[in-house]
Amino acid sequence: MRIEIEVSQETLATVMDGRCVEGRLRLQLSSMGTHHVIGFGPYNRKPRVRVRDRLIRRLEHGWVKESTRNIKVYDSIPKELGSARVISILDRDHQGAKEALMDRELDLIEFC
């Protein structure tokens, strides 16, 4: 049995330099339209570039941030404060988050 593997020029150059190439093998359609050619595709190991979230406002126990798609609100309150104080802190922090979002919208509006 004879197996033919199709490899790109970049992959061949990398192998000829003595480096390893991690990738996948799969059946590809040949020029005649049958599955007789096995193709090699190298893995893309480049890290994804992620835009950092922009801080809108720091809260008493957390923050409000803006990402490319979402508004994020984070609160971390110690348990030992008790339920009543935790509820009042949550109300206060959420009110601060609302004010921060309103201030952000007003900053975006251009007044004549």
Q: What would your notes on this structure say?
A:
The protein is of the alpha+beta class. It has 2 helices and 6 strands; from the N terminus they run βαβββββα. The chain has helices at residues 9-16, 83-108, and strands at residues 5-6, 23-28, 37-42, 54-58, 62-66, 71-75. The strands form 2 sheets. It has a 3-stranded mixed β-sheet, with no helix packed on it. A 3-stranded antiparallel β-sheet has the order 4-5-6, covered by helices on one side. The chain starts with a strand and ends with a helix.
Compact summary:
A hairpin with an 8-residue loop joins strand 2 (23-28) and strand 3.
Write the layout of secondary structure elements.
Layout: E1 5-6, H1 9-16, E2 23-28, E3 37-42, E4 54-58, E5 62-66, E6 71-75, H2 83-108
Parallel strand pairs: 1-3
Antiparallel strand pairs: 2-3, 4-5, 5-6
- The largest beta-sheet arranges its strands as 1-3-2
Distance between the termini: 79 Å
The count of DSSP E runs of length 2 or more, i.e. the number of strands, is 6
Shape: elongated
Largest sheet: 3 strands, mixed
Share in helix: 25-40%
Q: Kindly provide the radius of gyration, computed on alpha-carbon positions and rounded to a whole number of angstroms.
A: 28 Å
The assigned structural class equals alpha+beta
Stretches where pLDDT falls below 50 for ≥5 residues?
Answer: none
Strand content: 25-35%
Query: SSE string, helix = H, strand = E?
Result: EHEEEEEH
Number of helices: 2
* Mean pLDDT across all amino acids: 87
